[in-house]
Specification:
It is built from seven helices and 30 strands. 15% of the residues lie in helices and 52% in strands. Among the domains are: 77 residues, Ubiquitin-like (UB roll) (Roll), CATH 3.10.20; 72 residues, Ubiquitin-like (UB roll) (Roll), CATH 3.10.20.310; 64 residues, Roll (Ubiquitin-like (UB roll)). It has a 17-stranded antiparallel beta sheet that branches. Strands 1, 2, 3 and 4 form a four-stranded mixed beta sheet that branches. The protein has a four-stranded mixed beta sheet with strand order 6-5-8-7, with helices on one face. With 554 residues, it is α+β, with helices and mostly antiparallel strands. The longest helix is centred in the first third of the chain and has 17 residues.
Amino acid sequence: MLKYKILCLILLFCVILSAELRIGEIIFEGNNLISDKDLTTSISSSSGSIFNQKSLNKDAKYISDYYSIKGLFNIKVHTPKIITHSPTRIDVIFQIEELNEAKITKLNFAGNSYITDSKLSSALIRKDFTLTELAASINTLVEYYAYNGFLFAEVELDSLIIGIEDLTAFINIDEGRFCKFTEYVFKGNKTTRDEILVRISRLGRMKNISPAILQQAANNIQQKKYIKNCNLIPLDHNKLLFDIEEDRMSLISGILGYDNSKEGNSKITGWVNLEFMNLYGTDRSLAVNWQNLSADVSSIELKYHESGISRYPVNADLLIYRQEVDSTHIRSKFESEIYYFDLYNKYGLFYGKEDIFPGSKILNPIERSSFNKLGILWDMAILDNILNPSSGIETYLKYFYIFNTVDGDNLTKQAVEIRWARYFNLGKQFVLEFDVNANVIEKKQLTEFEVYELGGAKSLRGFNENTFSGFRVGWSDIEIRYLFGRNSRFFAFGAYGYVENKQYKYNDLFSFGFGLRTQTKIGILGIDYGLGIQNREMRNPLDGIIHIGIETGL
């Protein structure tokens, strides 16, 4: 009997020895910055796996590496602690100390010759930062060099010295050479002349070149309708590549109809638009627009853009317009703008002449009159995309005098036209746009041809075209846009309008709605639906105004 008991004990001991020791629960202690779930995924061991001390030691290193990946370097992972529950099961505890992260309080620069240590230090927003923030600080230094014309500068961390409570970083800099482009390489411009591309980029007089300046120069080229795409790529410190994709150089569009509503006065109606852009590759452009939307009103407009002499940054725009309204009057207009331009701005002179001729209508209230206009203008655009911006600002100001004669008296009036717009990138292709517009003319014996008009697609949407007119007109828009293409977007808008003349003053004009802009073969198609609110009364949604237009002008 005793021999039998001894044999059983020996067998039981052998079974215990042959059983595999497995991990029961894995516990993390001291981890406040990273969750247990994330740490569990970073190690190789798991509950139920076979116990292996070497694997647990590796897991401690994996945890330390995971903290480093998360940008947390000042931590300590102790040797895994083992708690035995039975001959076949243990629990593992990883004890972690998340210490206060040491900060870099001193930077030592090496390799910088053109830019001093003090200027590099002043370029950094913070004077002390963690290792996690070091990469962003290095990027800031690279951007600072690029802003100062060193587009090929390289900045990298060389070494760190660990002090008692802080760190000292040694930064190695390869400044490269200062970029001053004297040679241009062109690709893709089959029609546009090389020197014209340099001219319309407005880079010629820039002393310092930065990525932002190159982007603006590319935008200046890309705003031309005959340019589909443009990239400016530095090849070395004095060579710049113009990578161009051209679009069509001419455009013909229009709609024709036949109006026989008036007996004995049948006419062809519609509109025709002809554009001839970049004539002979010189950026000169010519556009003709004819409209006869009813049997009573017809007009023709001629626009010409003169690109000037290549060595001088001066352009000119000319406009000739003639409108005939039944037998009531004929209106002819000539306008010219001559302006100097730099990378962001246009500064110019404006001259215009307008004549009103009474028609053949008996008892015609229209009298012969003539106006001369002379003034100045300023146009600034700092945008990431001229036609469909996601960020930036634009400002337009025109101030001019009007000279005319009324009842034998010579009159002089002043007028001003202002537009200001701001674009905010909200991320994920959403953009907030806000603009303010104001047109004001001095109130001195005004005729119906001098006042400003309000209402329609180009001013206060949600109202019919030119519903209101006055000597003081203003409107403001706010839009939430979703960009789905280079020149395409959906948007919702709200608007406010103000108008004042001798007969009435409205300061409670509101509208809201939605719309679309999308690129087509004949131009940018615009469709807006708006509901107007006047005298605190909103239109019936079924009576909302739909504005449809094609942006095809020069």
